[in-house]
Amino acid sequence: EILQNQGVSEETVGQLRRGEYAQVFQKPGYVDTIEAQESGFVEVVNAMTLGRVSVILGGGRQLPEDKIDMSVGIKLWATKGDKVSKGDVLAEVHHNGRYRSQIGAMLMAFCLRGLSTKETITLTKTMMQSGTVQKWDPSWKVVDKHSTGGVGDKVTFPLVAAVASYGLKMPMISGRGLGHTGGTADKLESIPGFRITLTEVQMQATLENVGCYITTQFGNIAPADKTLYAIRDITSTVCYAPLSCSSIMSKKLAEGIDSLVLDVKSGLAATTDNYEQAEWLARTMVDIGHGMGVNTTAVLTEMDTPIGYTIGNSLEMVESLECIQGRGPADLEKIVSVQGGILLCKAGLANSQANGEAMILQTFQDGSAFKKFAEILQNQGVSEETVGQLRRGEYAQVFQKPGYVDTIEAQESGFVEVVNAMTLGRVSVILGGGRQLPEDKIDMSVGIKLWATKGDKVSKGDVLAEVHHNGRLTPNIKLQIQEAFKIGPQHLPIERVIAIVQPGLPTQSYTSYRNTKGAQGS
Fold first, then answer.
1. pLDDT recorded at residue 326
2. 462, 452 in Cβ contact below 8 A?
């Protein structure tokens, strides 16, 4: 009666009586959910916070003249006193995208006004806690590594094999390749049968029984990061370093780790092309990790030259397997042993950095690293037969073969002074070995195999590189590869490991760090 007396039609009243609310009320453009992060009883639902959020979404006025969006608001699925389980929906957020513009404004403010270290840590912690934070048996020593990306970067595979062989747990979330940087997940998928996706139950069982898994980012790890990243992309705030650091660290720290080693690269094919920027990036991430209670160390490494002698998914897996069996290139072994040595020290298993590095290299010689890597592969779907072929070096029986292999020859004699990693990384993508867009498919068989790298002596006519391809090698691409090599009179060997960044201490040269006992876990 009240409604009809004040203008509501009889038809509308009838719809309300029958519960046909969708026919009456405005519908929001989006409905997102908020899930419980743990099980128990709801003890508090802060009405002030939710009321303010509803206003921000457009469901109320911040100024008297503001117009109200009738469709937005928050629908609780649980309130004070209700019992919930982890993952249960706590609330639905009905909105029309306004919060995205608010976030965009916030991101621009971050860039214009800057973020302090304390603010960056707070942002990272909030992003991490927006989703699942993994929890493990407190008796475990859980560690991980992260690389800022480069060309020929296959460090993960020998590193996890060696470190996990000492009983440390490594819950590794890896990425796909995009642009000139290759992806850990893509490289592993060049091995027939490898299953990169795991359920949370499988992750728990794997870490307990095998000690390591390698998977891609799954469902509810730092979902706020996904939202922020999408908005950073359209607001030109992707390159703001504190936001990049928060994005990286929120996902890594959600793994529930005790120690983290960061491989921060500088050079032609790195995200930071000069040492000063790389050091600043490393320092920021180390401070974030330390501020959130994770023992974090960064290793500054050179990325002017490809790591090892291979670029491309199958080629890099072969070189990784050779390294795991004690036949790897010196620069790859060096990066792996330095980072692995740090993790062993932090876990209290090595009494010095030099001792930790020796322990890592020992696993390649005594077979324990390959044994562990074989466990990881078989646990994630690779057959026993395939693992046996990999052990015996029967790579041609396992990996896809290219249709063509062309060679690039030296045009003069001398020392290789430059091998431009950026050029070769981009060429590998053009040949089909990487993605230019996220939806691109990768050809696992293509890539570039170096026969000479920086510091090697060559004669005119010597083969510098093999190009593995399936018909995309044009004269122009061949010329680009040729020009990526600079040959001259100077012998300039690769100095791959540059410096070490620790919380609260000045950056140390690698040599100085190795000669001290400052690398110990205590």
1. 97
2. yes
